[in-house]
Every structure is written in C-alpha cells, then in structure tokens.
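Handout, section B. The chain below has 431 residues.
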Amino acid sequence: MNKNKFAKTPPMGWNSYDYYDTTVNEEQIKANADYMAKNLKKYGWEYIVVDIQWYAHGAGTQRDKFQYIPFSKLEMDEYSRLLPDPNRFSSSADGKGFGPLAEYVHNLGLKFGIHIMRGIPRIAAHNHCKVKGLEGITAADIANPSSICGWNPDMYGVTNTPEGQAYYDSIIDLYASWGVDFIKCDDICNTNMYHQNFYSGKHEIEMLAKAIKKSGREIVLSLSPGPALIDKAWHYETYANMWRITDDFWDNWRLLKDMFHRCELWQSHVAEGCYPDCDMLPLGYLGKGFGHERTTNFTKDEQRTMMTLWCLFGSPLMLGAEMTKMDDWTLSLLTNEEVLKMLTPDCRPRQICLDDKKAIWTGINDKTGDAYVALFNLSDEEAEISVKAKDLHINKNIGQLVELWNKDMQKAEEVISKKLPAHGCVVYKLM
C-alpha cells in the first residue's frame, strides 16, 4: 500500500476539464476557487485542478478540427519543462509559473493541482533541449520516440534510466516550488494504444512517485485514463493515491449503470491513501470548451444515484461543473453531510447484489460502527427494490432506518423495501 498518507480520505475538489476542455484561463480558475472557498470548503471540498494543455498556445482555437492542435507552440523553459501559457495565465510571466495562482488558491484555504501528460515534450527532443542537472545529455537522449499517446500529440515517453529519473525529478521539483498539491498524470494508468502492453507507462509511474518523495512536498498522485488494470492493483496501490477505473466518464446513463460493475471489481481495493477513481462528477453546467454548453444530461434521480455510489464506494469526488453557475439543487447535492460521511476508507463498501434491474450496496464503518444500505433501481421504469435484513450480513441490531437524502426515519422490518423511480436510489443509515 501507498504509505505517503497524502490523502487520508478520498480527495474532493474541482477540475476544469468537463466545462472548459483545454481553454481555461487564470480568471476562470480564480472565480471557481472563490466559489469553492465560500460555498463548499466547509464540507470537505478543497482541490482546484487545472486540467489539460495549460502550456499550449492557442488551445481550443481549432476545436472544430482538433481537441489538441498538432505541432502547436508549447510554453517551455530551457530545461524541457512545460510552463503555463502566459496569454491565459498572466501571473505566470517571467518564469513565475503557477506559483502566483497556487498562492491565490492557498490563501483561500484550498489546495492547487495540475494535469500533466506522461513523458517529455516532443519539441524538446527534436530540438535537443537541455535537462536540468545533466551535463551532455539532452531531451533527445531520454525520450522514447516509440512511446507516444494516441490522442494527444505533445509528448514522448521517457526511458527507464537514471537520466529519465533525473528529468522527472526536475519537473516535480519545479511543481513543488510552485506549491502544487495534486498532480493528475494522463496517458499512464492505461496506455491503451499499445495492445501488447497496456501498462507500458509502469516505470514512469514509479519515477513520478520517487520524484514526489524526493521533493519533500505532499503531492497527491492521480493516474489517468482508465480503465485501470485489476491485475496491476498492487502497483497502483504502491505508487499512486488514486487511479481511474474508467475512461472519461460523462453524463450518460449507460456509463453510470456500467460503473456498478467497475465498482464491484475494485471494491476491496479502497484503503487510506489509495482510491480507485470513478472519474469526475458531470453535474451542473458542462461542455462550453467543447463547443456546446449545456446542463447535465443526468436526471435528478441519476445524479443522486451517482453521488450515492461514489460516496459509498469511496471514490474521490472531482466536480466537473462550472461552479459560478451552480444552482441551489446541485449545491445541495454536494453538501449533504450525512451522505458525505460515507466517503471515508473506514467505511468498507460491499456490493451484495447486482443484475440488470437493481444493485444493493452496504457499508460498515470500522471505527464508528455506522452501517449503511443503498438500494438502486437500474431499470428504466419505476420498481420496488427490496432486500432481507438478514442478507445484509451486518452484525448489529437494526431498529430504525434513516434515509440520508430526505432525512425520513422509519422502523426497520425484516425486509427493507422501497418503490424507486427509474434510475433512482435510496440510502439508509441503520440505527
């Protein structure tokens, strides 16, 4: 298991991707950070994460043709290390990087994170740029030109050598100097372009973990994209804090229904500092950077189902909404303290039933003794979902059921049953 303890509970925060894609700028980051500090921080939400291509000039300007513009100009220092685009992040000018923006976020009592791609910039290798701390070695000497990302053109993989480790040490040292608290590394959890080796980035995960340890800064390491490989669970748990168990998750019922299978696969791997990641919460306003701003396609019942599953399973919570446009209902979904209490590695999740029509989960908190049961209607019409109390295998007398979303209380019976709307759920605390 990962022993760094940088994330004693699943990280909770906001990521710019679902709304902004590659286009987010400094003022938008600040506005969302302001909202979190005012409205969400007291409920445990704390990370503000700048997602992909913060270093790319003109990002998003050819969205009708490319998500990531091939051969675009990348902002970079003399040591092959990417820097924020000063046209979008004005405070980064003159080599300041994300230092000033991280300081702004920290002054709000929040934490700051960035997205990176696995590897070293291709343009650095082509131009034989220097690597900090290495004499006579350039980016071309540590880049692996046969290790690329199939969907982003920016990077080459890094060789598994001491010189490659030196490069990773140098970038983490830079990020630590900025005050980065969270790194989401992409094209590394599952390098699915390489069918003969879906885990070809294994050594780069280890390099990142070693570099973080050397830096002396507590930086949470998150791995993307998924699906994570269950036979590599021990490796994720040893070197990372969270890893994606799915490819990009969006507001589509088919994807949410499939998540019950994925969570079942990973339910025994949730532990302090180690979290299988169900991906971001596509709530509220989404998609502006993709060319089509919209409100989430999830119904309110589906949104409750998603929040209930993520919390009971123990997934990190990363909000994808534009927070400055948050409505009161969505805010209430994110600030239900009783539901959020399930989000702890002390609460052991267990799926006890799954078929095409329903799912039933339990959770037992080893420290407090609190016990929960959630009933999910996975069918496309209203249905009665039930479970016998004895089948929950919970070693406590159950007198009452307290429903966590609407606060209703009822006497416990031999059969726990509830008529639920299509794609809806109910979650009880057992008293």
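Note. DSSP finds twelve helices and 21 strands in the chain. Compare this with the example in section A.
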